[in-house]
Amino acid sequence: MDPRSEVVLRQIDQLSGQVLFIHAPNDQLLNQLGPRIDASIWTWNFSDYQGFQAAGFKTHFGVDFPQQQFNQVVIFVPKSKELLNYVLHNIVSHLEIGQSVFLVGEKKGGVERAAKQLHTFGHPVKLDSARHCQFWQLKLEHIEQQKPLESWLKTYTVQLKDQQIEICALPGVFSQSHLDVGTAVLIPYLDQVKSGTLADFGCGAGVIACYLAKSNPANTVYALDVDAFALRSTELTFQRNQVPASQLRLQPVSSIADAPFELDAIVSNPPFHQGIHTHYEASEELCKTAPQHLKNGGELWIVANRFLNYPHLIEQRFGQCTLKADQQGFKVLYACAR
């Protein structure tokens, strides 16, 4: 069991009634809560959502606060400070003064920093410190009126050859305030991507997906991501750049296994972090199983850190892997399914 969940169980007597668990890990916590607690989950991780759904728990996937009443809320601290601010705002715009908000997180995950963010709404108290984690309680003294989602956006403009694209990114989305180096290295090669039905795996704020759609009105682009905030950001990026909605297919995925088949190309700056932890499984699976999702002659385009062993994995499955670029610590890799 996740150590954060173990700390929650140490303080189980603090919880009762309709309790919303936000960004909770998909472990055995909810099975051990007991009859006093009617638990619901709010998660923006599609893989966790599928796990909770399969276990029969009340689960909400998305960027919006669940539309029901709660007595208490337990937040598992997200990596992003801006995302925690967004979550806290949604909580205090739906709860009432005097209700309790609990915060749990790892010390190395920034729980002490996160606890300071609670001070805007009252006086938090540390109830427990164990398993290298902390558990805090806040009784709300201040509430707020809910702000529109668009007020949380960060935007920036990217010059992509002969066109500009305005990027819209919500809190917690990868490279929220600027273009990341890996995508910048990949961009000059996007004009070489085969036209047709394409997928951007790990779409983030939609930089790659939007460019592929704008470069050819005949392209249909599947934006694939595990994160609801990324999917909504990509949708907003398409809207801001007046790309027809008919060119975009938003699809939450746990891995490349959830991607559509018969694609003309898969393009990816693949993710390799989950929270504060490095996690290569999703991107390695992409290298290994991409041919199953491509048409004959379909293409795989990946940009990845130079030190990662993706060329070997791609060669094993495609029979070849072409190095298109090696710049600024990143490699652009290409393979064609035969």
Automatic annotation (TrEMBL):
Top-level class of the enzyme under EC nomenclature: transferase
Keywords assigned: Cytoplasm, Methyltransferase, rRNA processing, S-adenosyl-L-methionine, Transferase
Record flagged with keyword Methyltransferase: yes
Subcellular location: Cytoplasm
Domain Methyltransferase small N-terminal, residue spans: 5-156
GO molecular function terms noted in the UniProt entry: methyltransferase activity
The Methyltransferase small domain, residue ranges: 165-333
EC number: 2.1.1.172
Any one GO biological process: methylation
Pfam families xref list: MTS, MTS_N
Catalysed reactions, semicolon-separated: guanosine(1207) in 16S rRNA + S-adenosyl-L-methionine = N(2)-methylguanosine(1207) in 16S rRNA + S-adenosyl-L-homocysteine + H(+)
Keyword S-adenosyl-L-methionine recorded: yes
Record field: transmembrane: none
PANTHER family: RIBOSOMAL RNA SMALL SUBUNIT METHYLTRANSFERASE C
Job description of the protein: Specifically methylates the guanine in position 1207 of 16S rRNA in the 30S particle.
Similarity annotation: Belongs to the methyltransferase superfamily. RsmC family.
Assembly and interaction partners: Monomer.
Name the record gives this protein: Ribosomal RNA small subunit methyltransferase C
Source species of the chain: Acinetobacter radioresistens SK82
